Amino acid sequence: xxxxxxxxxxxxxxxxxxxxxxxxxxxxxxxxxxxxxxxxxxxxxxxxxxxxxxxxxxxxxxxxxxxxxxxxxxxxxxxxxxxxxxxxxxxxxxxxxxxxxxxxxxxxxxxxxxxxxxxxxxxxxxxxxxxxxxx
Length: 135
What we know:
Strand content: 35-45%
Structural class: mainly beta
Order of helices and strands: EEEEEEEEH
Number of strands: 8
CATH architecture: Sandwich
Largest sheet: 4 strands, mixed
CATH topology: Immunoglobulin-like
Number of helices: 1
CATH class: Mainly Beta
Number of domains: 1
Radius of gyration: 16 Å
Distance between the termini: 23 Å
């Protein structure tokens, strides 16, 4: 089904799960719809209890800087029981010719996030080469 997404949006996609409590080591994918600056806060909790009401959750501030072609994933704030120490994150920079489907993107960047701030830059040459190779 087609989905319209505004430039300047950041959309997280989780791994495919058959049930909510299914363990997974797959990456969280962040689709960054370039064109203008964007902000997003990723929220995480245990997914099965109401302990988030007592503060047992974590948030991660994410900022896309269009002028610098830079995605900043901030420090993780908070914690909850069972929170993974590290999480794989896949970043896909989207424009009209790249990252528009659900297929795996060869030019995506994957890294291990340990709760400390990280910066990811959109590599223009790699981005352009991936687009040219697909035509």
